[in-house]
Amino acid sequence: MMNLKIDHKSPVPLHIQAENLLRELIKQPEYIEGKLLPNEIELAKRLAISRSTLRLAINKLVYEELLIRKKGIGTKVASSKFSSKSKNWLSFSQEMKNRGIEVKNFELHVSWVVPDKAVSKFFNVDEDQKLLKLERLRGKKDDPFVYFISYFHPRIGLNGDEDFKRPLYEILEADYHVVADLSQEELDAMAANKFIADKLEINIGDPILSRKRFVFDQSGKPIEYNLGYYRAESFTYTVESRRDY
């Protein structure tokens, strides 16, 4: 660890000195790469300051989104925010790859379920009709940042044995001749419930970005009802519009 030393004779307040030292500390390669910061007791002892003084410095960097606290884990350097543009909805994995970000699937679940009424209504099927449900927890390395839930219209013919590690719309087009042509989306800010908080490794009540996506084929028939839950401090969703003349 770099030399951490507070000058107790300096007119600069202790918490400001601690903040400046932390700013230098988190530039070290091991912390940029994901190593946890020392716990508050150890760090306060090394700096010869109180935990309350240290916490002022840490809170400032958390507020600036330079540090992130993870429940039951500790404090680490925040990764740069991932960003996705709405016009690139057909290939999320490819978009991330083009930015040098390799997307990892942490979880992948396939099941047949009777969905909520909203899903049945969207597909115009009976409320007791079972639909294929695909759930994926995705992110970078050890940093899951989005949980996707997709339902599919039964006429597509998906059976659940597909290799969903492949790009989803490639499967639909290449294997089932279904072309995703139109996406309509609804974005909302919400607080994480226990299920999503556990998946994204955040606290219950933390802010997340919620996105509903309604996907249609070239004839205007619905093919997918998709829900996405993004960890707010790790992801930015960009909407691009062009004026019609």
What is the averaged pLDDT score? 86
By secondary-structure content and strand pairing, the structural class works out as alpha+beta
Largest sheet: 6 strands, antiparallel
- What strand order characterises the main sheet? 4-5-6-9-8-7
Order of helices and strands: HHHHEEEHEHEEHEHEEE
| Integer-rounded radius of gyration | 23 Å
Number of β-strand runs: 10
Rough outline: elongated
* β-strand amount: 25-35%
Helix content: 25-40%
Poorly predicted ranges: none
Counted by DSSP, the helix tally is: 8
- Distance, first to last CA: 59 Å
Please give a structural write-up.
It is built from eight helices and ten strands. With 245 residues, the chain is of the alpha+beta class. The strands form three sheets. The protein has a six-stranded antiparallel beta sheet. Strand 8 and strand 9 form a beta hairpin. Helix 1 packs across helix 4 and helix 3 packs across helix 4. The longest helix is centred in the N-terminal third of the chain and has 13 residues, at 51-63.
Task: Summarize this structure as a short list of keywords or feature phrases.
245 residues, alpha+beta, 6-stranded antiparallel sheet, two-stranded antiparallel sheet, 8 helices
Secondary structure blueprint with pairings:
Layout: H1 14-25, H2 29-32, H3 40-47, H4 51-63, E1 67-70, E2 74-77, E3 82-85, H5 92-98, E4 104-113, H6 117-123, E5 131-140, E6 143-152, H7 168-176, E7 180-191, H8 194-200, E8 207-217, E9 222-231, E10 235-238
Parallel strand pairs: 3-10
Antiparallel strand pairs: 1-2, 4-5, 5-6, 6-9, 7-8, 8-9
Helix pairs in contact: 1-4, 3-4
